[in-house]
Write a structure and sequence with these properties.
heterodimer; A: eight-stranded antiparallel beta sheet; about 40% helix; B: mainly alpha; about 65% helix
Chain lengths: ~270, ~200
């Protein structure tokens, strides 16, 4: 049963008008309620058809040829593997482990909620669903335990107390799931950034990472490449020594990057 | 070799089923299928990007990029999450809005992007037939024209405006709760009025 409040939120979600805590809360609610998820999908389909309500306009005749020519140079994603891929956990250096743990934990949480939702649908079909849910819960708990152990090892091995660790959240209302974790080691003047669910930039654009020292201008820290599925992990260095970091940011810049940020903010740490 | 077309779910409407077959062919590297999908989608996608951005060159870039995404990711498309058309529209609209928000001249651009009314009621029946995308476009525009004016305006701003819900409320000088209710009622009414995609 969907009440009026849920339906109102579903309509806003269909237009990507939910933001921040409201969006997170609604997504949690939706993950537990298949009927609500279905309603959002229905409303998204209806909203998409508003594209036909735009003032009629024909694209230039040459655009089709341009697209077909471009397709010859674009690599296509392979069909997904039937089983979910488990992210590897690098243990080479402490900060890389910490970054991957944070991102993996977030990913595993999503996997867990997705699994719970799937299982709740199947429960109606009998005992099989309960077994699957149990299995997935066990798997999630097991992997979380393993990752926590690895993080503890990383804490012992490195000078993590000196490091700056930050979660970057999406600044794009239309790509709210994008996220990243940055870890900066001032002693080594090196860091690692792991991103997830960040849409690929246009061919003439690049994502660029910035370190923002307290009260100072942003310092460029290199380009951030993402896979077609939105994943990426980069080792970065600042253009000049950075001893304290107030924030990390990722912006969308022209191809090759810039020395002063000029494009739109994509990710920002708190 | 492209994978053979498979039978879509029975509940899927005809047009969506055909779109899914094209996506599957694209996943196998079939560029002719990409051309066919372009013929089916390009006009509403371009019109949407243009309505948001008011800039034909930028709208063209957006449509190009969206078709590259469709081409690259055809194999990972998940039909249970929506139709190919909704996917393409979402990509187009999101990219257009992101680009709109990236502009420093936001206020002026938004005023241009969301005209006061798209003027459906003022048009005689069939006046836009020649320029429209055909039956589908006519059906959608007729359904939108049937909406109460306040709901229609709220939906137009929500879809094409690139505004937050608070900004929509401010632009329409109405309480936020009123705007949320209009969007809900308008979208439900539109969903019920739209025919299956044929």
């Amino acid at each position: 049963m969907i009440d009026e409040r849920q339906e109102e939120l579903a309509a806003l979600e269909a237009f990507d008008l939910l933001e921040g805590a409201d969006k997170a809360q609604f997504e949690g609610e939706m993950a537990r309620n298949p009927e609500l998820q279905q309603r959002v999908q229905q409303l998204r389909e209806a909203a998409a058809r508003l594209a036909h309500a735009a003032p009629p306009a024909d694209p230039p005749a040459a655009l089709k040829d341009r697209i077909l020519a471009s397709a010859a140079h674009h690599r296509q994603a392979a069909a997904p593997e039937p089983r979910a891929r488990i992210l590897p956990f690098p243990v080479i250096v402490a900060w890389a482990a910490a970054a991957c743990f944070a991102l993996l934990a977030a990913g595993m949480t999503q996997l867990y909620f997705a699994a719970r939702q799937r299982a709740s649908v199947l429960e109606e079909q009998g005992q099989l669903a309960q077994i699957e849910l149990k299995s997935l819960q066990t798997r999630f708990e097991t992997e979380r335990f393993v990752n926590e152990r690895k993080l503890a090892e990383a804490l012992k091995a490195g000078d993590l107390a000196q490091m700056k660790i930050a979660a970057l959240t999406s600044m794009l209302g239309n790509s709210p799931a994008a996220m990243a974790v940055a870890v900066w080691n001032p002693a080594e003047q090196e860091g690692v950034l792991a991103v997830d669910k960040l849409p690929e930039p246009a061919a003439n654009k690049d994502y660029e990472l910035w370190m923002i020292p307290p009260g100072a201008k942003p310092v460029a820290a290199g380009l951030v490449k993402v896979s077609p599925l939105g994943h990426g992990q980069v080792l970065f260095h600042a253009e000049k020594p950075v001893h304290a970091v107030a924030k990390f940011a990722v912006t969308l810049e022209r191809k090759g990057g810039v020395s002063v940020p000029a494009g739109s903010m994509v990710l920002l740490s708190q | 070799m492209p994978p053979p077309p498979t039978t879509p779910p029975a509940s899927t409407d005809d047009r969506t089923a055909a779109d899914m077959v094209l996506l599957r062919r694209m996943a196998g590297g079939d560029k002719a299928a990409l051309g066919d999908l372009y013929d089916r989608f390009s006009r509403p996608l371009f019109a949407t990007a243009l309505a948001v951005l008011s800039d034909p060159a930028e709208a063209q870039d957006i449509v190009h990029d969206v078709f590259m995404v469709l081409w690259e990711k055809a194999a990972v498309f998940e039909p249970q999450r929506g139709s190919p058309f909704a996917w393409a529209v979402t990509l187009t609209r999101n990219r257009a809005i992101d680009r709109l928000r990236a502009r420093r001249r936001r206020t002026a651009a938004l005023e241009n992007a969301a005209p006061d009314d798209l003027g459906y009621e003022a048009q005689p029946a069939g006046a836009d037939e020649q320029a429209s995308a055909g039956d589908e476009a006519r059906a959608v525009r007729a359904a939108v024209a049937e909406l109460p004016a306040d709901q229609r305006r709220a939906l137009q701003l929500a879809f094409f405006g690139g505004l937050t819900r608070q900004q929509i409320a401010e632009q329409l000088r109405e309480p936020l709760g009123t705007i949320k209710a209009r969007i809900r009622r308008g979208l439900l009414r539109l969903r019920d009025a739209l025919p299956p995609r044929r």
